[in-house]
Specification:
Number of strands of chain A: 15
Subcellular location (chain A): Nucleus
Radius of gyration of chain A: 24 Å
Strand order of the largest sheet of chain C: 4-3-2-5-7-8
Protein name (chain A): RNA polymerase II transcription factor B subunit 2
Number of strands of chain C: 19
Structural class of chain C: alpha/beta
Largest sheet of chain C: 6 strands, mixed
Family (chain A): Belongs to the TFB2 family.
Oligomer: heterotrimer
Pfam family, one (chain A): Tfb2_C
Mean pLDDT of chain C: 70
Mean pLDDT of chain A: 78
Strand order of the largest sheet of chain A: 9-10-12-11
Number of helices of chain C: 18
Number of helices of chain A: 23
Helix content of chain A: 40-55%
Shape of chain A: globular
CATH class of one domain in chain C: Alpha Beta
Strand content of chain C: 5-15%
CATH topology of one domain in chain C: Rossmann fold
Distance between the termini of chain A: 32 Å
Strand content of chain A: 5-15%
CATH superfamily of one domain in chain C: von Willebrand factor, type A domain
Largest sheet of chain A: 4 strands, antiparallel
Largest interface: B-C, 96 and 94 residues
Low-confidence stretches of chain C: 1-75, 426-450, 492-513
Organism (chain A): Glarea lozoyensis (strain ATCC 20868 / MF5171)
Low-confidence stretches of chain A: 1-9, 287-307
Chains: A alpha+beta (469), B alpha/beta (355), C alpha/beta (513)
Chain lengths: 469, 355, 513
């Protein structure tokens, strides 16, 4: 189940990479582990683990038998994600041999190494053997990471308090990524910037890192090394010092930028060690985990920007937000009609007009909903838990917000492939069913025997297998 | 084609499958492991289990693990280690265990491995001669009780943390609300046989697990125990008896790694026959036909002496089970030996009509 | 001919006052634990009194003049029910001026209180036959219990059914309703909880109406219990909202016949004490007065009803005929891959089933009697579910600071205890006790002082546990983690002791009177 939140920008980005890049990426056990943990649907993880120590390829028919008949959709989704990420290979259908599933060699070797330890890849970070510089406690790192990151956010939302300006490099990056546009006097937020703000912190970090990755490519840096460094950061332990000496040259040059983002901290006294902050160590945690790593993460970010839930929304569209952060209030004001402000909270209403306004400036209803539910007050979460884990937000509100958006947007563009002119109705039906099962189907017309899909590779294979029969 | 038209009921479900807690109960019965040595030495089994633990932790960031040893006469926490044992080497930890600073190993994995092996070594070192010689089973009931108490506590803490702490409603008493809480399960890696002496406590833990909706998975490497079978059946866990223990890791990874969410979409191995026999209170025999006191439901393999229930001391009227004249009281000890082989009538009885 | 019986005794005038008052004080503390909101406390406390004095039968009772005038008594001296334990009086501010520590202490105390029950092993009837009588009369429309008495009762009854079968898996239950002056059968005596729950759910659409008739309902339950075998208990639980009963004859005759039929009645009232109910319970329970209670609020109501799920103590040996039953514990087979065969009980084709342990006939569900050889077949797990009643776990004791130094963390869940350094100094201890002297007896003040160490010890294995594990061990697992985990001391012991570590052969304790 790839929920809306875990389906990150990074994920989309990775899928587009060519197979050769994946092979290089998977050479690092830490990368293999991070991708396994972060990018895979739940069932896919079970598949991978089952295949990991299997000495011969697994028959596809056996796999089908292992999965319950009502979970066919999840199975197809899992397999399609796995093959898109080049984690498994499924042998091409042929008449002589049955189809088999196996892990790609690079991934298998690396994940095994990650689980058992050993090898000499040093991909989990080399702890610095030098004496730890004093005064670098968890609180300090959290505070450091928070101020750095908030500086960037404030800059984006143009509430820039003097003094907390991000460095020029970051400003350039934001501009290059079209998150802000430089006006005559000040910078102005763009549509992409709005959506950026509405994401949870972890997603924001990834967005920025990927922007930077593009940027770095232009400078001629090897993006595989950069990516593996991101994944390595995610496997480090908070509050420990790591050695800079053993890093690769590319990675060393990256550190400077990461310091700007607030992902790592280099103590001024000891130049050859660095400390990852919580922003870095949670890079590869997924959304639900972020909520449960409450102890530190919230203390890191809640004081100012409020990652901890603080929004209560009622069925009558009234919204109460327990926050005094100008940043959060500015974000809320994007899609809410705020009415009153108290010392520690603001109240307002989600109205048709306010949602219109947000939609017209490029924010989607999904983003609003995701924002509301990720920042939902613990009381809302508890209420949903008491009802046996239903939706966090009142369904009426959620539906209405979507409807308000749909009122305006009668049309939605999707890039993809149109299938038509089938040989027979039977073929059409089979392909349609398959496309629906693997979750790529966007539109279909039964009368005209046409359908439209977003991704085509697997469908091709399937067509071949149909033809082969 | 509901998905396509955009009016489907959107649910703000951000959670996804939550983290899970795995408690492994490792049977360290020295007798059984000695017998098992030629096929699967303990060291190798531990290595396999460690990989399995790492695989579990790798599956989700917030996944947790705990390990209890069910030793002869004792049940001991292996991971997390009790503080008392920990305090000794806490300062010299980083120095003395170079493996912890190994850049080739994910640090959380290294921490667990190190602590588990240390406690296991300690456990073996503190086992005395009489401990081993006086029993041939292990303290499974205690280990399960510890595991359940731990899960209960972690769950309470988890709910407190994830919901508002203001209300006292998350006491362990109301267990109905933990649907969305931490998914917990217990895996018992068992090598010992007969547990009849612990019948009642084991059944108590079984029902406790059932109430808390914690599946108890059983992986049997050797021996056979009726009660663990019942435990896994009652709690909807997986029961597996390995025919070739060498393949332990593959079994672990394939059958026992999927958590409760994945299991809903996978076909779990099932037990062909579930043995529902009980242990009698008088001689600790496993029986399939027994005499039950109508007052307290105690089970006896033969009508007790003088027809007085040993548990509740009620005088019982014997029904007209004329076929059972076995009330003649013989010396208790001898009787046990004499009847030793008779307690389980051969499973192949009269053929069923229709076979 | 029906005559209205309305013998109402306002609470607090006679001997019942003590019990009522006691319950009251304890529930007040509950509120503090729930949330430390003083406003709500006050409200609920007064609310309790308010609703109780305005029952639907008020006019009738005034006419009789049985009721004591509130005004008169107030003037003379403080009546029993006016001595209220104000929960805010016992709250002690901590050093930092907050009441957090006190509230925490109270929460812990409350968790414990729920646990501290009698663990003397009494002979209890485990094969039970119980009739649940629910008042469906006009009195149930009242809204003094939220949302209404009617809905709350149905809800509680549903929970009761579930819990009852959880606790007494081989027992039987039937449900009868009282409305329109007659008794109506809601569900027949059976051992299937889902059926009962379905019937109860169906009642949810209706409303309470007409008069209740105790006598009719009791007569009907007497008939229903007539065939209950002698080795089981025969019980009736009445949830009674009204303060009157509209009976066709003399209820005392019915009570007499209930006694001869060995049926015992317990009642949970929703409004006020009713004399005939008290009499009914007392007489059918051999003089034991503890089977009639009046609910103070929703929580208390639920607690009272749930208390009945514990098997009752057997009163005398003669009361139930005990016998030794031969039973078989068949194994279940799934029969995957085998041919289908007919089951012996319904002649239906099926693959899996249970094979009789004596003759190998196949039956499809348990419990059942083997159709071929007549052996009673039962799932041993059904029997085992009730064993924790036989060997109840002893209550654990609080550990005073003086003995707390031996442990740093809970034995079973490894949660750390507060360190010794946080032990209170002597002076603060004194301050606490002096403030509480009032009505608090010695034991209570000791409790509070000792509670601070947050350690609870099993007296057998002397291990220390935290409060969560204490609650868990006594309510859910029924095992002592300490005793179960280390039997090195008992290496030579055999027999029942091994089961429980401290299990003793349960003595047959007869109830007095």
């Amino acid at each position: 189940m790839a929920s809306a939140v875990s389906n990150l920008a990074s994920f989309e980005y990775l899928e587009k990479l060519p197979g050769i890049t994946f092979r290089k990426l998977y050479l690092e056990p830490s990368t293999a582990l991070a991708i396994f943990r972060r990018m895979l649907p739940h069932l896919a993880k079970a598949f991978v683990m089952a295949l990991l120590y299997m000495d011969k390829p697994f028959l596809l028919t056996d796999l089908d038998q292992w999965v319950q008949s009502n979970a066919k959709r999840q199975r197809d989704e899992a397999l399609s994600t796995l093959s898109r990420l080049h984690i498994v290979t499924i042998s091409a259908p042929s008449r002589q041999e049955p189809q088999v599933v196996s892990l790609t060699d690079a991934f298998r070797v690396s994940l095994r190494l990650a689980l058992t330890g050993g090898g000499n890849h040093q991909s989990f970070g080399v702890p610095s053997s030098d004496a730890k510089s004093a005064g670098i406690e968890l609180e300090f790192l959290d505070e450091y990471g928070r101020t750095q990151w908030e500086g960037i956010l404030h800059y984006v939302v143009s509430t820039g308090r003097s003094g907390a300006q991000p460095t020029a490099a970051v400003q350039q990056l934001l501009e290059a990524g079209n998150l802000v546009s430089r006006g005559r006097r000040s910078t102005e937020i763009t549509q992409a910037g709005f959506s950026f703000l509405l994401q949870e912190v972890n997603a924001q970090v990834w967005t920025l890192l990927l922007l930077w990755l593009h940027h770095a490519k232009e400078l001629g840096m090897d993006h595989v090394e950069i990516l593996s460094f991101f994944f390595m950061l995610g496997s480090l332990e908070l509050g420990k010092a790591y050695s800079i000496k053993t890093l690769k040259p590319t990675q060393k040059s990256m550190l400077e930028n990461l310091v700007d983002f607030g992902l790592v901290y280099i103590p001024p006294s000891v130049k050859d060690q660095f400390f990852p902050t919580r922003l870095a160590t949670t890079l590869t945690s997924d959304a639900s985990a972020l909520r449960s790593i409450t102890a530190g993460f919230e203390s890191a970010l809640s004081t100012g920007s409020g990652t901890a839930g603080f929004i209560i929304i009622e069925t009558n569209y009234r919204l109460y937000a327990y926050t005094d952060s100008p940043l959060q209030i500015a974000v809320l004001a994007l899609f809410t009609k705020l009415t009153t402000r108290y010392p520690n909270m603001v109240t307002g209403r989600v109205t048709r007009e306010s949602v219109y306004r947000a939609v017209s400036s490029g924010i989607s209803s999904d983003q609003i909903i995701t924002y509301l539910s990720t920042h939902a007050h613990p009381e809302l979460l508890k209420a949903s838990a008491a009802k046996g884990g239903g939706p966090v937000l009142p369904p009426t509100v959620v539906d209405q917000i979507r409807l308000w958006q749909i009122e305006n947007e009668r049309m939605k563009t999707t890039y993809g492939f149109l299938f038509k002119d089938f040989e027979s109705t039977d073929e059409y039906k089979k392909l349609l069913k398959y496309a629906d099962e693997i979750g790529v189907l966007t539109w279909a017309s039964k009368t005209e025997e046409k359908f439209f899909v977003s991704k085509v590779e697997q469908l091709k294979d399937y067509m071949k297998s149909l033809k082969a029969k | 084609m509901d998905r396509v038209d955009g009016t489907d009921h959107y649910e703000g479900d951000v959670q996804g499958p939550g983290p899970s807690l795995l408690v492994i109960v490792l049977d360290t019965n020295p007798h059984a492991w000695t017998l098992l040595h030629p096929t699967l030495p303990l060291s190798k089994a531990i290595a396999n289990i460690l990989v399995f633990i790492n695989a579990h932790l790798a599956s989700h960031n917030a996944n947790q693990v705990a390990v209890v040893a069910s030793h002869c006469h004792r049940a001991v926490w292996l991971y997390p280690r009790p503080q008392a044992a920990n305090s000794v080497d806490v300062e010299m930890k980083d120095a003395s265990h170079p493996s912890l600073n190994d850049a080739n190993k994910y640090r959380p994995f290294a921490l667990i491995e190190d602590s588990l092996l240390t406690s296991l070594r300690e456990l073996v070192a503190t086992t005395t001669e009489p401990d081993i010689s006086t029993t041939n089973t292990s303290q499974m009931a205690g280990a399960l009780t510890l595991a359940l108490a731990y899960i209960n506590k972690v769950n309470v803490a988890y709910l407190d943390e994830n919901t508002s702490p203001s209300k006292e409603s998350t006491t362990s008493v109301d267990t109905t609300t933990n649907v969305t809480g931490l998914q917990s399960r217990i895996l018992v890696i068992s090598v010992s046989g007969d547990l009849a002496h612990q019948y009642i406590p084991i059944m108590n833990t079984t029902f406790a697990a059932q109430r808390l909706r914690i599946p108890i998975d059983i992986l049997k490497l050797a021996g056979d125990t009726v009660f663990l079978q019942q435990a896994s059946d009652t709690t909807k866990g997986i029961y597996m008896q390995l025919s070739n223990p060498q393949g332990l890791l593959q079994y672990l990874m394939m059958a026992f790694l999927p958590d409760n969410t994945s299991r809903k979409s996978l076909v779990a191995p099932t037990q062909e026959v579930v043995d529902f026999r009980a242990a009698c209170f008088c001689h600790r025999r496993v029986v399939d036909v027994g005499f039950v006191c109508s007052i307290c439901l105690s089970i006896f393999c033969t009508p007790p002496e003088g027809a007085v229930c040993m548990t509740c001391s009620t005088h019982l009227t014997l029904g007209d089970y004329g076929a059972k004249p076995a009330v003649v009281p013989r010396r208790k000890k001898k009787k046990r030996k004499l009847n030793g082989g008779v307690d389980t009538p051969s499973p192949q009885g009269t053929p069923v009509p229709g076979k | 001919m029906s005559r209205i019986r309305s013998l109402v005794r306002p609470r607090g005038i006679n001997r019942h006052s003590d019990t009522v008052h006691h319950i009251m004080s304890s529930s007040d503390e509950d509120y503090v634990a729930d949330d430390s909101d003083d406003d709500r406390n006050a409200q609920t406390a007064t609310g309790t009194h308010g609703t109780r004095s305005t029952g639907p039968v008020r006019d009738a009772t005034n006419g009789r003049g049985v009721r004591g005038g509130d005004g008169k008594e107030k003037g003379k001296k403080q009546a029993a029910w006016e001595k209220i334990n104000r929960s805010w009086d016992i709250v002690i501010e901590g050093a930092d001026g907050s009441i957090n520590s006190a509230v925490d202490g109270l929460i812990r105390q409350n968790k414990r209180k729920r646990l501290l029950r009698d663990t003397t092993p009494l002979q209890r009837g485990i094969i039970r036959h119980l009739i649940l009588i629910i008042d469906l009369s006009f009195a149930m429309v009242e809204k003094d219990l939220r949302p209404t008495r009617y809905i709350l009762t149905l809800r509680t009854a549903t929970e009761f059914v579930t819990e009852y079968f959880e606790q007494n898996p081989i027992s039987q239950l039937g449900i009868i309703g009282m409305r329109d002056g007659i008794a109506i059968r809601i569900s027949d005596i059976s051992g299937n909880p889902t059926e009962h729950i379905e019937r109860l759910r169906a009642l949810g659409d209706q409303q309470g109406q007409g008069n209740p008739s105790l006598q009719n309902a009791l007569e009907m339950s007497r008939a229903a219990l007539f065939h209950a075998p002698s080795h089981g208990t025969r019980e009736v639980l009445i949830i009674y909202g009204a303060l009157l009963s509209s009976d066709p004859g003399d209820i005392h005759d019915t009570i007499e016949s209930l006694i001869t039929d060995r049926i015992r009645v317990s009642i949970v009232g929703l409004a006020a004490q009713v004399a005939i109910c008290a009499e009914l319970c007392e007489k059918t329970n051999a003089g034991d007065k503890n089977n009639y209670h009046v609910a103070l609020d929703e929580e208390h109501f639920k607690a009272l009803v749930m208390a009945t799920t514990t098997p009752p103590v057997t009163q005398t040996k003669q009361q139930s005929q005990s016998s030794l039953l031969q039973m078989g514990f068949p194994s279940r087979t799934l029969g995957v891959g085998k041919t289908m065969s007919f089951c012996a009980c319904h002649s239906k084709l099926s693959r899996g089933g249970y094979l009789c342990s004596r003759c190998d006939s196949k039956v499809c569900s348990l419990p059942a009697e083997c159709p071929a050889c007549g052996l009673t077949l039962i799932l041993s797990t059904h029997l085992a579910r009730s064993y924790h009643h036989l060997f109840p776990l002893k209550n654990w004791v609080e550990v005073p600071w003086s003995a707390a130094s031996v442990s740093k963390e809970c034995y079973s869940c490894l949660a750390p205890f507060p360190p010794m350094s946080s032990a209170p100094s002597q002076s603060s201890n004194k301050a606490k006790t002096s403030r509480e002297n009032g009505e608090k007896d010695k034991l209570d003040s000791e409790n509070i002082a000792a509670n601070d160490s947050e350690r609870y010890a099993c007296e057998v294995c002397n291990n220390h546990f935290c409060i969560d594990c204490d609650v868990f061990a006594h309510t859910i697992s029924h095992n002592c983690p300490g005793c179960q985990s280390d039997t090195r001391g008992l290496i030579e012991n055999d027999s029942v002791d091994r089961n429980r570590g401290h299990g003793t052969i349960v003595a047959d304790v007869e109830m007095a009177g």
